[in-house]
Design a protein that fits this description.
The protein is mostly helical. The chain has a single domain, classed as A middle domain of Talin 1, CATH 1.20.1420. Helix content is 77%, strand content 1%. The protein has a two-stranded antiparallel sheet. Helix 4 packs antiparallel against helix 10 and helix 9 packs antiparallel against helix 10. It is globular and about 50 Å long. The protein starts with a helix and ends with a helix.
């Protein structure tokens, strides 16, 4: 058991550090291409922080533990909204949004949650549904880029070091994910905890650590739009890409338990996310409520 725990912890650290390398270098390359900082935040940074989820999901399919995929996505989406956003509000005391999140971004997020909810009711994800997910993701990216102005000044130069860091980060993300899954599968087998419970809780929490770090840092600096945009963008990427892409590598196993509690709960907290942002601010006590709901979610799982 000790070996499985050590492998899991070390692999998760490698996964998170490698993700940080990837995000940092991708951000520099994006700035050099004239992409605005805000778009980098809600696309490159948000999607970059979801790399651990994507990597662990693909690795789980290769390892014959595809039940991790759905649990990882649903658990991560719940964790991002309740834990990440809740902690972000604690740091910022109050989150203020200086843009209309309901203009396009929030409807896309809630729409993605409904799409996943109905797509999984037959306990399968067809190739047609996977393509629909990916097309929706491309449409979201296209809309984000189209709505931004390209920066023409102060473009940093891309060094060969940045490109190398990007590639090396990508390699270690997948290696870290592979061994994280191995350690978790071994640990869950030894202690007798179901794989779907592990993926919905420990894996989801571990792979959401980049979102925690990025959003809390942004809130501390007063960059509230980036903090909230990171959560929103990460959940969209999780639903559309992390669910769909692993399906091209093997058939997904969707446990019954996920459909009866975690999936409806994810849909409910996504709608709640939308409701509390209608006023363009998230109060301290709303943040407390999110954290209480996360504690309730974990209690229900175990």
């Amino acid at each position: 058991m000790l070996l499985a725990i050590v492998i899991t912890i070390v692999s998760l650290i490698v996964l998170l550090v490698a993700s940080d390398w990837f995000i940092d270098s991708a951000e520099k390359i994006g700035l050099s291409l004239g992409i605005s900082p805000f778009i980098i935040g809600v696309t490159i940074v948000a999607f970059g922080t979801s790399l651990p989820e994507l990597a662990t999901s693909i690795a789980s399919v290769y390892s014959g533990a595809s039940e991790f995929v759905v649990g990882n996505v649903i658990g991560s989406n719940i964790t991002n909204i309740l834990l990440v956003l809740g902690l972000t509000v604690m740091v910022g005391k109050q989150i203020k949004l200086d843009f209309n999140i309901w203009d396009i971004d929030m409807p896309i997020l809630i729409g993605s949650a409904f799409l996943m909810f109905f797509s999984l009711q037959d306990q399968s994800l067809s190739m047609v549904e996977c393509v629909i997910f990916l097309v929706a993701l491309v449409a979201f990216l296209f809309n984000s880029v189209q709505g931004s102005d390209r920066e023409t000044e102060d473009r940093p130069k891309v060094r060969l070091f940045d490109v190398g860091k990007l590639l090396l980060g990508g390699v270690f993300v997948f290696l870290g994910a592979k061994w994280t899954i191995y350690g978790i599968v071994e640990f869950s087998t030894i202690v007798g905890i179901g794989a779907e419970i592990i993926s919905l809780s420990f894996v989801a929490l571990g792979t959401s650590l980049p979102e925690v770090a990025v959003s809390m840092a942004a809130a501390k600096r007063g960059k509230h739009a980036i903090a909230v945009g990171n959560v929103l963008g990460s959940n969209i990427f999780n639903t559309y890409a992390v669910m769909a892409l692993p399906s091209f590598f093997g058939e997904l196993v969707i446990p019954d338990g996920i459909l009866t509690f975690s999936l409806p709960f994810m849909l409910a907290v996504t709608i709640l996310f939308g409701i509390i942002t209608v006023t363009k601010r998230i109060t301290f006590w709303e943040g407390v409520m999110l954290l209480i709901l996360y504690a309730y979610y974990l209690a229900e799982l175990f």
